[in-house]
Each structure stands twice: as structure tokens, then as C-alpha cells.
TrEMBL record:
InterPro entries: aa-tRNA-synt_IIb, aa-tRNA-synth_II, aa-tRNA-synth_II/BPL/LPL, Anticodon-bd, Anticodon-bd_dom_sf, Gly-tRNA_synthase/POLG2, Gly_tRNA_ligase_bac, GlyRS-like_core. Pfam families: HGTP_anticodon, tRNA-synt_2b. One of its GO terms (cellular component) is extracellular exosome. It comes from Fluviicola taffensis (strain DSM 16823 / NCIMB 13979 / RW262). Homodimer. The lineage of its organism: Bacteria, Pseudomonadati, Bacteroidota, Flavobacteriia, Flavobacteriales. GO terms for biological process: diadenosine tetraphosphate biosynthetic process; glycyl-tRNA aminoacylation. This is Glycine--tRNA ligase. Catalyzes the attachment of glycine to tRNA(Gly).
């Protein structure tokens, strides 16, 4: 675990040094849990958005995108249940004065037991080698079964207490499990209390005359209130989806772990409207489709696992998370939820407007059911960074920091470098740069030795470097170097575009 914590520190430091992520208001010593994306971070973030938008909207004829306002009529949040029910159970440790989410403390305790099971499996796997049957071992080994039973008991108690809003029961569970504060190591806990996560502000120029409104805590409601606008103006037939990328705001109890949990964050959400009764079919479809989307990036299947929810939200009849193995362990990256017809029915009731769809095939009106996919953009950014960042020891004994980013997501696709700053090489390099920049985001780099320049491009994840030398002036060929293999080959300038495109084109990724 210590190794993983070091990895997070290395990523934070690397992100700042190379212009990916800065602490917000850095010259004023920062503001807790807020970050600014730098020049390279903005590029990487935009490329992640593009990948999501292209695969969700461009590749699906029955999904369209919108961009709804952050401010919404305050009754929206009454209808959605956020005013009354958007709470997290919080608990304080009296010795460290640190605040925690009570449910997260319990989940982290269960994760430790899961790790014990995994160690048992790993040990047996080494012992029995090829003869090892993991499924049979998990089903029969007494230690594994005992720990699995412990997890089940904790899950059952946690579900019951949270569903009944039994805060005393949540505290008793924490005490029974002898959970200690990670900072003080003590079990000196306060009572568990509910904490509403919405930021409120005032609309109007004079406080007092203003009406209280909220910064949206999710982007989904902007889609629901526009359901009919989109359906009618776009002549959409069910099943169809509405996608959106946008900022959301939550007054998190515990906002830490770099950009994993922030008070201002960005979501990529799609609400898919279906016939009542078809929702589980589409829920399973989107569960599989979203996992495939993540795995297509090639970061490694070992980073992903699926986790069905213990406690369902008030609007859901099924919910599952795609979890990613972050430097802090497995945590939620994307949620897939079957939201039933809760949201549209609530907005019907509170607005007095009908939010129904006439289905010509069934010859009837109904309120559609909804399947939601919701991925945190900032979490996706951290997932990509943490899986791509490596400190490699090379054959010659030297080291390099490299970001093996999926080529389509890399901030720069190619760096153009003249070998020296004289003899007409910078002019030739600039000519190549000006031609390639119509198709790719390029960087020009002429400072320092070639080796140092290669290391710098490796550290920011640039897939290709093109070196312009004296031979280029004679025969119009250049040396192109691959970030991952570090192999160099001589190619004609006229072939450069096709070679780079082969690696970085969206087509390759979207067709997986």
C-alpha cells in the first residue's frame, strides 16, 4: 500500500512539474480540494471528453448531446429529492479532529478483508501452479469462506442501517468492527450525523430580495427537464439517449486524494430513455458497453472490476459501479443505474406538466424508464494518469519517467525537433511542423541535447518525436522515434502524416 501512496505523490508532483494539474490559487497557498488544469492537463482532459462524446453521440444514431445551465429552478432539486435526501453520514474522530464518511470507513474495512482473501488465493496459486483451480479454492477454503462470510455480515448490517437511516446503528457497526481513525489510531468517535452536500447561493442583486438557488450537484436533472424539448425537436423515438458533459458541485465532507474527490468536478453522463419493462435489458447492455469502452484504452484489464451497490439510491432499482484500481485502491470510476421512471414522474408532479412519450408501436402514452451511465471526468483523468505513469530503468542503467498515455489522448501527438539550431534545420523543421499541425497537435522543441528532449517528450506522453538532421536537407527523410519502444526509423517526410495517423486516429480506438 505504501508503494501505491508513493505513486500518488509521484503523480501529483509530475502533474505540477509538467503543466497537467496545479493547486488552485497556488500563489495564495491553494484552496482545499480545488485544482486547476494546466496547459497539458487541459489537452488531456479535452481528449478524454472527445473520446466519450464521439463514442456516445457520434457512434450512436439514437443518442444526442445537450449542454444545460448550471443554475436551475430551485423546485428542480425539491422534485429530484436532493433538498431532503442528498446527505452523507459523517463522523468525526475526537482525537485527530478529522472528519470521515461513516459508510466509506466501513467499506474500507471490508476492502481490507477482501485483500486478505486475495492474499490467500495468491499464496495457493503459487503453491499449486498450473493445477490451481481458483473457483474451487474460493468455494472450499475455510479461511476464504470465513472472511467472505464476515464481508457479507458487514454488508447486510450496513445496508439495513443506511436504508433505515439508523445513524446510531451505523456508529455501533463502526465500534463493533473496531475501526480506528487512520490519523490518530484511536476509536474515539462522535455520533454519526447527516450532512447535505448541496451548495446554495442567491439569485438576484440584493440579498434578502433574492431567492435561494443551488449549484447543481449533478448534471442529470438538466437532461430530465429537457426530455420533451429534445424528444420533440429531434423527433426522437424510444429507446434514445441524451448525453451531457458539465460541471457539478458538492460540498463534500472529505474532499481529498488529489483530483479524485473535489467540490467542483466534471461529469460525463448519458440518460437512456426506454419502455417500462425493458430497463433491465438496457441496464445490462450499458454495463457491458461501458466496461468495454474503458478497456479499449488498453490501460490493462487488471485495473477494472464491477461492484453492485449495497444500498440503492431512492430512485434506483439496480445500480453497479465500474471500479478502477487507483493509487488509493479500488474506487468508483463510473456508475450505471436503472433510475426507473422516478425522475420524470417527480418533475411531472412538481411542474404540473406532462412528461410522457406516445409510443406509436404500442399506441399508448407512458412515462419512460431511464438507464443512466455517469463517469467522473476528473476521476477518468486520474485513472489514465496513474495507469500510464512509469519510472523505467533502461538497459544502459539510466532512468526515464514516461507517460504511456493512449496515443489518442496524448496532449501532443508529435514533437518536431531540429538536430541543431543552424544550417537551415530549424527552418526545415518549422516547415514540417506547419504542415502537420493541420491534422495533429504538435510541439516544436529545439532546446537541449536530443537525449534530453526525448526524455522531456516521454514525460509528457508524446507518442512520436521527429528529428530533422542534415540528411533531411539532402533526401527529405527524417528520423521518427516511438515513445513506447524508443525505436527510431528513417521515413520520408511525405509518409509522416500516414504513419502518425495510424497510431493516433480516433477510428482505431472507436472501432474496438
Amino acid at each position: 500500500m505504501e508503494q501505491k501512496e508513493d505513486l500518488l505523490k509521484d503523480i501529483i508532483s509530475h502533474a505540477k512539474e509538467y503543466g497537467f494539474v496545479f493547486p488552485s490559487s497556488d500563489i495564495y497557498d491553494g484552496l482545499a480540494a480545488t485544482y486547476d488544469y494546466g496547459q497539458l492537463g487541459s489537452e488531456l482532459k479535452n481528449n478524454i471528453k472527445q473520446y466519450w462524446w464521439k463514442s456516445m453521440v457520434q457512434m450512436n444514431e439514437n443518442i444526442v448531446g445537450i449542454d444545460a445551465a448550471i443554475f436551475m429552478h430551485p423546485t428542480t432539486w425539491k422534485a429530484s429529492g436532493h433538498v431532503d435526501a442528498f446527505n452523507d453520514p459523517l463522523i468525526d474522530n475526537k482525537d485527530s479532529k478529522k472528519r470521515y464518511r461513516a459508510d466509506v470507513l466501513i467499506e474500507e474495512h471490508m476492502e481490507k478483508i477482501r485483500q486478505k482473501i486475495n492474499k490467500e488465493v495468491e499464496k495457493a496459486s503459487k503453491k499449486f501452479a498450473e493445477a490451481f483451480d481458483e473457483a474451487q479454492f474460493r468455494a472450499t477454503n475455510p479461511n476464504v469462506l470465513r472472511n467472505a462470510e464476515k464481508i457479507k455480515e458487514i454488508e447486510d448490517r450496513m445496508r439495513t442501517t443506511l436504508e433505515n437511516n439508523d445513524l446510531e446503528g451505523v456508529k455501533t457497526l463502526i465500534e463493533d468492527l473496531e475501526i480506528v481513525c487512520p490519523i490518530s489510531g484511536s476509536r474515539n468517535w462522535t455520533e454519526v450525523r447527516q450532512f447535505n452536500l448541496m451548495f446554495s447561493t442567491e439569485l438576484g442583486s440584493v440579498a434578502g430580495d433574492a431567492s435561494t438557488i443551488y449549484l447543481r450537484p449533478e448534471t442529470a436533472q438538466g437532461i430530465f427537464v429537457n426530455f420533451l424539448n429534445v424528444q420533440k425537436s429531434g423527433r426522437m423515438k424510444i429507446p434514445f439517449g441524451i448525453a451531457q458533459i458539465g460541471k457539478a458541485f458538492r460540498n463534500e465532507i472529505v474532499a481529498r486524494q488529489f483530483i479524485f474527490r473535489m467540490r467542483e468536478f466534471e461529469q460525463m453522463e448519458m440518460q437512456f430513455f426506454v419502455r417500462p419493462g425493458d430497463e433491465m435489458k438496457w441496464y445490462n447492455h450499458w454495463k457491458a458497453a461501458r466496461l468495454a469502452w474503458h478497456k479499449a484504452l488498453g490501460l490493462g484489464d487488471k485495473y477494472y472490476r464491477e461492484h453492485d451497490h449495497i444500498k440503492l439510491a431512492h430512485y434506483a432499482n439496480a445500480a453497479s459501479d465500474i471500479e478502477f484500481d487507483f493509487p488509493m485502491g479500488f474506487k468508483e470510476l463510473e456508475g450505471i443505474h436503472s433510475r426507473t421512471d422516478f425522475d420524470l414522474k417527480q418533475h411531472e408532479q412538481f411542474s404540473g406538466k406532462k412528461l410522457q412519450y406516445f409510443d406509436p408501436e404500442l399506441n399508448q402514452n407512458y412515462v419512460p424508464y431511464v438507464v443512466e451511465t455517469s463517469v467522473g471526468l476528473d476521476r477518468m483523468f486520474l485513472a489514465v494518469m496513474s495507469a500510464s505513469f512509469k519510472n523505467e530503468k533502461l538497459e544502459d542503467g539510466s532512468e526515464r519517467a514516461v507517460l504511456s498515455l493512449p496515443a489518442q489522448l496524448a496532449p501532443y501527438k508529435v514533437a518536431i525537433m531540429p538536430l541543431t539550431k543552424k544550417d537551415g534545420l530549424p527552418e526545415k523543421a518549422t516547415e514540417i511542423l506547419n504542415d502537420l499541425r493541420f491534422d495533429f497537435n504538435c510541439q516544436y522543441d529545439e532546446k537541449d541535447s536530443p537525449g534530453k528532449r526525448y526524455r522531456r517528450q516521454d514525460a509528457i506522453g508524446t507518442p512520436y518525436c521527429v528529428m530533422v538532421d542534415h540528411q533531411t536537407l539532402e533526401d527529405n527523410t527524417v528520423t521518427i522515434r516511438d515513445r513506447d519502444t524508443m525505436l527510431q526509423e528513417r521515413v520520408a517526410i511525405s509518409e509522416l502524416r500516414a504513419k502518425i495517423d495510424e497510431k493516433v486516429s480516433w477510428r482505431n480506438l472507436l472501432s474496438k
